[in-house]
Amino acid sequence: MKKCELIEKCPFFHDKMKDIPVMKKAMRIGMIIITGFLFTFPALAQEYEELFYSEQYVEAALKRRAPFREVPQSVSIISRDFLEKSGFLDLYQALNFVPGVETCESFFGYTEVIVRGIYPVHFNNKTLFLLDQFSIYDPLTGNYYIEGFPVGAMEKLEVIRGPGTTIYGLNAFSGVLNFIPRRGENVNGFEIDLLGGVRSEGKPYWR
Description:
Elements: H1 2-9, H2 11-52, E1 57-58, E2 66-67, E3 74-79, H3 80-86, H4 91-95, E4 101-105, E5 111-115, E6 127-131, E7 134-135, E8 154-161, H5 165-168, E9 175-181, E10 196-198, E11 204-206
Parallel strand pairs: 6-9
Antiparallel strand pairs: 1-2, 3-8, 4-5, 6-7, 8-9, 10-11
């Protein structure tokens, strides 16, 4: 009993006891801040996912309509909403936003698609290009050209990263690109996309 009385009368003990409410208050504030961050990060991730992966089904991964979360391959989906908000001039620019995919200009003057670092050398014959599940390529070289497909005509782009030869065979060595065009039921009324500018030689152009 005397020992307890001595501790209670100690000034150092009383100073520490006074600091306890302040420490508790600081801990509560810290917990509130941490909780706020924990709720904020999933919200930001969800916002990005809704922008970049707003479609919940994939068609090219298994050659059938399947939920995005259930396909075993590495899949990225570029939605119509993302295409409109990003202001891409061509579909190659959109592909550069896909993880593990990049584009470069070839020796022959056209753009090549590189998936997971596998360089196609002279022709785009390492990735299979599908237009609404139908393969389109040059039968001689296996090359494909997407320069002529306007961004405004696409509903979404599906990019399968990794070998797809088991399902698709020829040209699907490093990946599969499935471009799904817009359909009449997706357009309310009519739309016109115009693009204009000035070339390097000073001549104006539009399309």
